[in-house]
Amino acid sequence: MTMSSIDRILILTEDTYGKVFFEKIVRKLKERGVLFRGRGIDVKSVSAKPCDAKLSRVLEQLSVPAPYKHNYFRIVVVMDGDGRPREVCEKIRFHVPYSCSGIVKIVVVDYELEEWICLCLGIRYSGKPSVELSRYLEAKRGIRYRKRYLPRFADELDIDVLLKKSESFRKFYNSLLVN
């Protein structure tokens, strides 16, 4: 059975390393039986910031039905909140074209994706989670955290912990479930 593009979900992440990170999370959710194994979920990295008009163009391009074009029934935009998640969410919402506003779900983490890793490893943070993660890794494993390590940590995520402790992860998780 082939799946048309209209049966697909797209996750848009703001950085290159987030692409593999989210692909691993999706795989983990499929293995757990949370997501239908045949559900088509694509992950793309888009180098756009919340207040960037490029985001509007990308969303418009990906959502308009056309022959031989990838379009999606849901687009999940995941961005860092950098300590201002509500403000970032509003900036993103402003750039979502009206033509695709019904299919776009916005997920903004409080600071950055590393907060999900910190929650799963029991690391407390009050500012940038990547800084605390780096301190933890230096103390426990003798390495400093680098953004390029993000995909490696997807394997260490505990879905149950994230569902209990992270509002942004719950929102992401729920955006992948077909209603």
Furnish the topology, listing elements before pairings.
Blueprint (H helix, E strand, L loop, with lengths): L7 E6 L2 H16 L8 E6 L7 H11 L10 E7 L4 H11 L8 E6 L4 H8 L7 H13 L8 H4 L5 H7 L1 H10 L3
Parallel strand pairs: 1-2, 1-3, 3-4
Protein architecture, described:
The chain is built from eight helices and four strands; from the N terminus they run E-H-E-H-E-H-E-H-H-H-H-H. By secondary structure, the chain is of the alpha/beta class. The longest helix is centred in the first third of the chain and has 16 residues, at 16-31.
Structural features:
4 strands, Rossmann fold, 8 helices, single chain, 179 residues, disordered N terminus, alpha/beta
CATH fold naming of the domain at 5-112 and 160-176: Rossmann fold
N-to-C SSE series? Answer: EHEHEHEHHHHH
Overall shape: it is: globular
The profile of the biggest β sheet is: 4 strands, parallel
Structural class based on helices, strands and sheet pairing: alpha/beta
Number of helices: 8
What's the CATH architecture of the domain at 5-112 and 160-176?
3-Layer(aba) Sandwich
How many distinct beta strands?
Answer: 4
Low-confidence stretches: 1-5
Our Rg estimate from Cα atoms comes to 16 Å
Q: How large is the share of residues in beta strands? A: 5-15%
The average pLDDT is 86
CATH class of the domain at 5-112 and 160-176: Alpha Beta
How far apart the termini lie comes to: 22 Å
Q: Percent helix among the residues?
A: 40-55%
The protein's oligomeric status is single chain
Strand order across the largest sheet:
2-1-3-4
